[in-house]
Amino acid sequence: MKNILLVEDEAHVASLILRSLSEEGYEVSLAPDGNTGWDMATQNNFNLIILDIMLPGINGLELCKKLRANGDTTPILMLTALGTTQNIVTGLDAGADDYLVKPYKLAELLARVRSMIRRGAPAGSVADGDTNEKLQMADLSLNLKDKTAERGGLKIDLTATEYRLLKYLLENKRRLVSRMDILEHVWGVEFNMNTKVVDVYVNYLRRKVDKDFENKLIHTVIGMGYILKED
Predict the structure, then answer these.
(1) Antiparallel, parallel or unpaired: β 76-80 and 48-52
(2) d(Cα 24, Cα 119) in Å, to the nearest integer?
(3) What is the dihedral of CA 15, 13, 19, 114, to 10 degrees?
(4) How many CA atoms lie less than 13 Å away from 94 in the CB half-sphere?
(5) Measured CA distances, 61 to 55, 69, 123, 203, 224 (Å)
(6) 58: how many CB neighbours lie within 10 A of its CB?
(7) All domains in the chain, ordered by first residue
(8) Per-residue pLDDT band at 128 (split at 50, 70, 90)
(9) Which pLDDT tens digit goes with each residue over 158-190?
(10) What is the distance in angstroms between the CA of the first residue and the CA of the last residue of the chain?
(11) What is the CA angle 35-38-44, rounded to 5?
């Protein structure tokens, strides 16, 4: 049986989610605040953490950051009423793997849960035994073993999300990928989360990969998506 930690302070919301997940066969532990969530997450092993942002004690963003800084790689699904593009980017930057905006349908929540647990690790993580240790395009390379990137011999500092995005683009070099393709493969999102998040992260990555180089590698195909290729 898969174990899920639900960190939610609104009793009626927590009760509804807990009942729905239990009916699906999951073992669910409830933490009513961020401090309790931290204690439970660090003292137990979970297959998934469902985390609200607005919490008493440690808020959801800070809790997510603390868990990631502590080396916890458990997939994290954030639930929040804060649904602007910047809010979503902030949550993903904190280390969340997926983001669901309230109000949402329970069927969508359950589908996200199934998808994240099926993957068994944060989207884009390198599987054990992956024999392809380096991805490359022109003078840009990504080392999958130590998760470092370089271009022209210069190190590129990447956030976890930027790393997953660059990995996906390199795996699909010279191939057009849509925003929905990126959402599904980089974040594991199978529903219509705000695709502007993709544009924000591509721009972040473009500044690091292309800004100081004449030969641009990340290209926008208007109305369709992105492609990694040489000019």
Answers:
(1) parallel
(2) 17
(3) -140
(4) 24
(5) 9, 12, 19, 23, 32
(6) 18
(7) 3-119 (3.40.50.2300), 134-228 (1.10.10.10)
(8) very low
(9) 887 889 899 999 999 999 999 999 988 887 665
(10) 50
(11) 140
